[in-house]
Structures are given as C-alpha cells and as structure tokens.
C-alpha cells in the first residue's frame, strides 16, 4: 500500500466529527425518579500522535480521561459547543463513562479506558 492508498482508506485522520447518539440513565434531580436522556455527541477522531500525547506518562495533574473527552467532544445541534476540560472533569461519573465509551468507540481506543 502506498501513501495515497493509505489516505484514501482513512489511514490518516481527518477533522470531520462523527455523530454518536448516546443514552444516559440517571436520577432526575427534581422528581428523584430514574430517567434516560438520549442525545447526540459530535466526536473528533484523534490521531495516533494526539492520543499518545494525551495518555503519556507525564507529571501532569490533569485527568487523562477528562482531557481526552475535552479534546474530542463537542455538543449542540451542529457540534459548535466545546466541552472544556473543567466541564469534562466535573461530569457526573456515569455520564462521564457514557461519553468516554463513545469517544473510545469512535477512536478505537477501548483498551485505553479508565486511565487517570
């Protein structure tokens, strides 16, 4: 395979986001009853180099998974709302794992889950 073929087959990551529908089951803060919300995430596919940098063993105090989510996910109908690191870090845990699983599915990084 040559470089042109590799690019044609998707071997070089493009910047187009992937729409991914997710469902989050949680307790409603007002009624106390369990509800399920279904919504669409816009997930950027990350290159090998970006993923390697995000999960490198460094001296950073930041959560690697929150960094991965913030680097990958946008919200809103058109995916125009960025999810900041602070927002990703503050996600309710079950929602955080729903989003992280979607990011892992899109990027083929399921084996990288739950690295802090």
What does this molecule look like?
Helix 3 (64-72) packs across helix 5 (93-107). The protein is α+β, with helices and mostly antiparallel strands. It contains five helices and four strands, in the order H-E-E-H-H-E-E-H-H. Mean pLDDT is 90; it is low at 112-116. The chain has helices at 3-8, 48-54, 64-72, 85-89, 93-107, and strands at 18-27, 34-43, 73-75, 81-82. A hairpin with a 6-residue loop joins strand 1 (18-27) and strand 2 (34-43). A four-stranded antiparallel beta sheet has the order 1-2-3-4. Helix content is 36%, strand content 22%. The N and C termini lie far apart (37 Å). It has one domain. The radius of gyration is 16 Å and the shape is globular.
* Whole-number count of domains: 1
Low-confidence stretches: 112-116
User: N- to C-terminal separation?
Assistant: 37 Å
Mean pLDDT across the residues is 90
Relative helix content: 25-40%
What characteristic shape results from the CA principal axes? Answer: globular
Number of helices: 5
Number of E-type strands = 4
Keywords:
alpha+beta; 5 helices; 22% strand
Short description:
The chain has 116 residues and is an alpha+beta fold. It has helices spanning 3-8, 48-54, 64-72, 85-89, 93-107, and strands at 18-27, 34-43, 73-75, 81-82. Strand 1 and strand 2 (34-43) form a beta hairpin.
């Amino acid at each position: 395979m040559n470089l042109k073929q590799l690019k044609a087959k998707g071997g070089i990551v493009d910047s187009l986001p992937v729409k991914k529908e997710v469902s989050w089951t949680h307790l409603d803060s007002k009624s106390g009853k369990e509800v399920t919300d279904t919504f669409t995430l816009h997930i950027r596919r990350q290159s090998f180099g970006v993923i390697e940098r995000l999960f490198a063993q460094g001296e950073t105090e930041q959560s690697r998974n929150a960094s991965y989510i913030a680097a990958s996910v946008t919200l809103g109908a058109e995916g125009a709302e960025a999810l900041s690191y602070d927002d990703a870090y503050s996600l309710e845990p079950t929602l955080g794992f729903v989003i992280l699983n979607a990011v892992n599915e899109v990027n083929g990084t399921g084996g990288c889950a739950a690295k802090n």
